[in-house]
Specification:
heterodimer; A: Fumarate Reductase Iron-sulfur Protein, Chain B, domain 2; 12 helices; B: 765 residues; Rossmann fold; FAD/NAD(P)-binding domain; 5 domains; 7-stranded mixed beta sheet; 5-stranded parallel beta sheet; 21 helices
């Protein structure tokens, strides 16, 4: 995807705001931000963000493409919608955050080992295999994300919940071996394929 | 006074007066002590029947001087309006009843208060005469509008529309003034409300400036005479009979007689050569917001080209507050209030006509006016980039400009390249020399101040009105060269009666506001001309026929009245006696307060009308434990505040006034004669409270300087007290606003507490 990134840089050159408007979901709203800072003040996780939404919007206008797209900030959004409710200009800030994250992912600019991004990828890969989420596999993979030792520790910590779920039939250990699929797995996969084609086409027309 | 004085009193027994006070006793006091010929009572004096009773007595010649004991003089003004009689009013309802608790043990002191107010009102009316116009008045409906800009044109059109002929004088050879080059103007209207779907549909866009259309309407209007290339070389007279010499560049002079004048001299664009840091003058591609309009007009809808090489502009930066809101020498310390919307508009030119990147570097973006915030959104929608940043330097290198600025959101020093830089420069008032500049040099206390005042005097701009008043050629100024005018309470009033300031010469503003201002000033000018025709005062004592008269034989030619009159109403005659211009006079009485020999008086307001009120109270002896506190309250703010306190008390607010207070309204604290203070102390008053309006830069004094003059004079009252071996705490001067409802009575109550501490006045008679 590095090519796409290069193509975008060349296409929009000076105007990152235009690039965001054309490529990011709800990106056309960014120009309407009036920099009041209510979003940043409202964000419950704001203090953990490198750049709160107001600042991201300012950086977009200032043409700070690399800093914005490779930022960790928009990945921190938990979709609480506090900012959307409070924005006096009624910007869909939450959606713009996800839009930015999505666009950064498309361009291959996500910071390495960004946990939200890593989990999203894990979830997607898991889903694609059988057309449904295999909770046991997803859970285990998540436990062992940071190595074997750490995984054992987390697993032991959650032992009680796991046993309870087994007992009540909420989770089958058999799922660890392949696991069951949706009824029409082929159909599901071709549906996803078609969606991907449509998306690529859209990007070819508007984006790159 | 040829006719015999017939004094008659009328006491109302309504509104609880009859129930709580001994009316019979007050009647006796009015006739015996007050020396009234008769005193009637009525259960509802302000009703049709009661008013008719008074009218009949006046008509029958039974009453030439009327004392009314009822509510405050500020209540029922329409009912108790008898133009053929002199009138005083004892404030029994607000002044006594409502501010006093209705209890048995308070009954005695409350009654004493009411009795005194009757005594005072009787004394006051005895020393009044019926006000009548001087007979010098003339009605001249023609107005003079000075300034051919949008403000002046609007004022002229509005006056003409109301039926008043206008002389419009423009310095330039065309109409339009500073806005002549305007390509488009900031929209006058907000977005339509409640647009379904989105707030951002149908936002206001830059619109036709309308300057040419305005000029066309002026030319087509037969009531308006336009004088181009012309200046006013002399203005003399007074409202109703101004005479103005209008001289054209070619040397011709015509003299026109007018009733009132509107000064709409607008502003001069700030001189950007004071801004070398932004490369103004070094690079032709750094222009001011005013110069940009010319470039946009030349482009006429096509791409705007930069001046240096005619290249189409692809990126432009706007530097807001250029040379403004800054204390640096040569900069304007104030905000000009129009440049933010102006820059948004101009940035939109570039977005639309050039497709260029347009960045507005602002510190505080403010968008006053109807379109305001909507217009800002309009700019955002057009993808104008708004960066909160402070520009420090513009560098020209190899055909591009580099703007260095501090990004205030991202907190970093950064720079941007562009083809053109627009400096959002401000408005410098186009006014004449400060008439008090010479006085400022004389009065300066330090050498530094003296130097500054002298520099101002030497660099004074040419006069605009050339008034032949004793107090200088032009309208007095408040700050930064803007014409003095109270921006909220009485915006068009200046300190020269009959001359009204409109538009940016009184404070910086945009075109829409200037046009609204012009309408207001035109209407005030019409009112002034009409009132002058009747010999009546204008704001704030609208319709007052009394005017200052003086006893020539007593005058010592000290000139204090001519110097201190805030309105320049008093000239000097050949023998150097004061020459009062009653139609320039606002009836504040500042001259009366200034006069050390007490020779100035009004028919219904004089040293005696107040002095006799002070004397005619029943003064209990030193051992009675009943002190007397005199409160002189300005009728514009302090007295209404006390009335409103009474209304609040009536509604159960718990406000009380000490029963030892005797409140006398004065026209302005500036009219207070020091003789009243010494007389009061000699008579035995234990404390004196003086309440005037807020003074100095944020003044609320309706006569602008009256309150300040009073403060200056009263600053020396402490010496008088010491000479009399009295405690200086016995006299207190306060600034009271009309909203000080709790505070105004409290200040008087505080004095009562002070008297308890320092003891009674030993000079009781």
């Amino acid at each position: 995807m590095g090519d796409l990134n290069q193509a975008m840089i060349e296409k929009y050159r000076t105007n990152f705001l235009k690039e965001v408007e054309a490529n990011v979901e709800e990106g056309e709203w960014v120009k309407m931000c009036m920099q009041c800072g209510v979003c940043s003040g409202s964000c419950p996780l704001g203090k953990f963000w490198d750049h709160p939404p107001q600042e991201l919007f300012m950086m977009i206008r200032a043409g700070k493409r690399d800093e914005v797209l490779s930022s960790d900030s928009m990945w921190m959004c938990t979709s609480c919608y506090n900012c959307v409710v409070r924005c006096p200009r009624e910007l869909p800030i939450t959606h713009i955050m996800h839009g930015l994250a999505h666009y950064a992912k498309r361009l291959g600019l996500v910071p390495e080992s960004q946990p939200t991004a890593a989990f999203a990828q894990m979830f997607w890969d898991n889903l694609m295999q059988k057309g449904r989420v295999n909770e046991l596999k997803l859970g285990l993979k998540l436990y062992f994300m940071n190595g074997f030792g750490d995984g054992i520790k987390v697993a032991l910590k959650h032992q009680k919940i796991g046993m309870g779920m087994l007992k009540t039939g909420r989770m089958s250990p058999m799922e660890a071996f392949g696991g069951h699929a949706v009824k029409d797995l082929k159909g599901f996969q071709s549906m996803i394929k078609k969606a991907q084609e449509l998306e690529d086409q859209r990007i070819a027309e508007h984006g790159a | 006074m040829a006719a015999e004085k017939k004094l008659a009193g009328y006491i109302c027994t309504g509104c609880g007066i009859g129930e709580r006070l001994n009316v019979e006793q007050m009647r006796t006091i009015a006739t015996r002590e007050g020396k009234l010929g008769a005193c009637k009572t009525h259960p509802m004096l302000c009703g049709a029947e009661g008013v008719q009773m008074i009218r009949d007595d006046i008509a029958a010649g039974e009453a030439t001087h009327v004392m009314i004991g009822a509510c405050s003089r500020r209540s029922k003004m329409e009912a108790f309006s008898f133009p053929d009689a002199a009138m005083s009013r004892a404030n029994l309802r607000e002044g006594v009843l409502w501010l006093r608790p209705d209890t048995e043990e308070q009954k005695e002191t409350t009654q004493e208060m009411a009795d005194d107010y009757i005594r005072m009102a009787c004394a006051e009316v005895r020393f009044m005469t019926v006000p009548s116009a001087s007979g010098e008045q003339e009605l001249n409906k023609t107005l003079l509008v000075v300034g051919g800009g949008v403000t002046g044109m609007t004022a002229a059109l509005e006056a003409a529309r109301a039926g008043y002929p206008v002389h419009l004088v423009a310095e330039e050879n065309h109409l339009g003034g500073v806005w002549t080059d305007l390509y488009k103007r900031v929209p006058f209207r907000a977005a339509a409300a409640d647009v379904v779907g989105s707030k951002d549909i149908d936002l206001p866009q830059p619109e036709d400036p309308g300057v040419d259309a305005l000029a066309e309407r002026i030319r087509a209007n037969e009531r308006i005479t336009v004088h181009l290339n012309a200046r006013i070389t002399r203005t003399s007279g007074a409202p109703g009979r101004f005479s103005a010499d209008i001289s054209t560049e070619s040397g011709g002079t015509v003299t026109e007689n007018v009733g009132a004048i509107v000064q709409a001299s607008d502003f001069k664009p700030y001189d950007a050569s004071n801004l070398p840091e932004f490369a103004y003058g070094k690079s032709p591609d750094v222009v001011t917001n005013f110069e940009l309009e010319r470039l946009a007009k030349d482009a006429n809808g096509g791409p705007i080209r930069r001046p240096s090489d005619g290249k189409e502009v692809t990126s432009v930066a706007f530097i807001q507050c250029a040379g403004q809101r800054s204390d640096k020498p040569g900069h304007l310390p104030y905000c000009s209030g129009f440049c933010c919307t102006e820059s948004i508009k101009q940035a939109m030119y570039f977005r639309e006509q050039n497709g260029a990147d347009a960045t507005v570097l602002f510190d505080d973006l403010r968008t006053p006016g109807a379109a305001g915030e909507d217009f800002y959104r309009s700019g955002q929608q057009a993808q104008v980039t708004f960066s909160k940043g402070k520009a420090s330097e513009v560098v020209s290198e190899n055909g591009t400009l580099k703007v260095h600025f501090k990004d205030l959101i991202l907190n970093e020093d950064t720079a941007m390249d562009c083809d053109l830089v627009v400096l959002a420069t401000g408005q410098v008032p186009n006014t004449g020399p400060d008439p008090y500049a010479q006085l400022a040099v004389e009065e300066a206390e330090t050498e530094e101040e003296k130097d500054a005042a002298r520099r101002k005097l030497e660099n004074a701009p040419p006069s605009i009105l050339n008034l032949d008043y004793r107090q200088g050629t032009d309208l007095p100024q408040l700050k930064h060269g803007f014409v003095d005018s109270h921006f909220i309470c009485f915006p068009y009033e200046t300190r020269r009666t009959g001359i009204y300031a409109a538009g940016p010469c009184r404070r910086p503003m945009d075109m829409k506001q200037a046009m609204e201002d012009a309408v207001g000033a035109a209407l005030k000018a019409i009112q002034s001309a009409e009132n002058a025709g009747r010999g009546a005062a204008v704001h704030p004592r609208v319709g007052d026929l009394s005017y200052p008269q003086f006893r020539k034989e007593g005058c010592t030619q000290c000139k204090r009245c001519t110097v201190e009159c805030p309105f320049g109403a008093i000239n000097e005659d050949e023998q150097r006696y004061p020459l009062f211009n009653e139609s320039r006079c606002r009836r504040c009485g500042t001259c009366m307060g200034a006069c050390p020999v007490r020779v100035i008086s009004f028919e219904n307001y004089s040293i005696d009308t107040v002095g006799q009120q002070i004397k005619n109270v029943d003064m209990p002896d030193e051992f009675s434990e009943k002190p007397r506190i005199l409160a002189l309250a300005c009728e514009n703010d302090a007295y209404p505040a006390l009335d409103m306190a009474a209304q609040a008390a009536q509604m159960g607010d718990g406000i009380e006034l000490t029963p030892f207070a005797r409140v006398i309204p004065v026209r302005c604290l500036g009219s207070v004669s020091l003789s009243w203070i010494t007389d009061a102390l000699n008579t035995g008053y234990d404390g004196i409270v003086l309440m005037g309006c807020r003074r100095d830069d944020d003044y609320q004094c309706h006569f602008v300087r009256g309150s300040a003059m009073a403060a200056e004079r009263l600053s020396k009252v402490g010496d008088t007290l010491q000479q009399m071996q009295l405690e200086t705490e016995r006299v207190a001067v306060y600034e009271v606003a009309i909203t000080d409802i709790q505070r105004a009575p409290q200040l008087i109550n505080d004095m009562a507490a002070t008297i308890e501490k320092v003891g009674m006045n030993p000079f009781k008679m």
